[in-house]
Design goal:
This protein folds into two domains: 89 residues, Four Helix Bundle (Hemerythrin (Met), subunit A); 85 residues, Arc Repressor Mutant, subunit A, CATH 1.10.10. It is mostly helical.
Length: 180
């Protein structure tokens, strides 16, 4: 794309209403938000924060600085989206989802718990270590966050995450063996 055309479009930004800017750059915001879909934050929230970033870019953009509006907007859109993800992570709303995403595995323990919600018990293997059973039970049956579990058991959050990961792997492998 010609640099002159880009600069001409950038001068139009200051003359455009917020609604026009949103309509024109909606696909850009959606595309950036889609890259963060696996963070545990709903896509609608990511898009909304991206739009706020877009409007922030419109408000702050100066044509005489040499950058195109699109380049400038991408910075502010990503800034707002990443701030949202950090806030959600700190609040613990998506931390367990992110842990599971990093492990790149399905969560068989939660599926088992959902199946057995009537009696609120998990069908955990007898040979599973007591600490793993306790972490899984607190995590899924009692809906405790990793931080809450670490405080209750006086173990670091990272160690609780590792124990939970091991327990889920053990559970999954045992379920696969019994199916075969």
């Amino acid at each position: 794309m010609d640099n002159l055309d880009d600069k001409n479009r950038d001068t139009d930004i200051s003359e455009m209403s917020d609604t026009e800017v949103i309509e024109k750059y909606q696909k850009l915001v959606s595309g950036i938000a889609y890259h963060y879909i696996n963070t545990g934050v709903p896509i609608e929230d990511l898009n909304q924060e991206g739009m706020i970033g877009l409007l922030e870019a419109k408000k702050r953009f100066k044509t005489d600085k040499g950058a195109s509006f699109t380049t400038y907007a991408i910075y502010w859109i990503k800034n707002r989206i990443l701030s949202l993800i950090r806030r959600e992570y700190k609040l613990g709303h998506c931390s367990e989802y992110i842990d599971e995403m990093n492990q790149d595995m399905t969560n068989p323990v939660e599926l088992e718990y959902q199946k057995s919600t009537r009696n609120h018990s998990l069908d955990l293997p007898d040979d599973m270590p007591d600490l793993e059973k306790k972490v899984i039970t607190l995590s899924f049956a009692d809906k405790k966050s990793l931080t809450e579990i670490s405080e209750m058991l006086n173990i670091s959050r990272e160690k609780i995450r590792q124990i939970k990961t091991m327990a889920m792997r053990r559970y999954k492998s045992l379920k696969n063996i019994t199916k075969a």
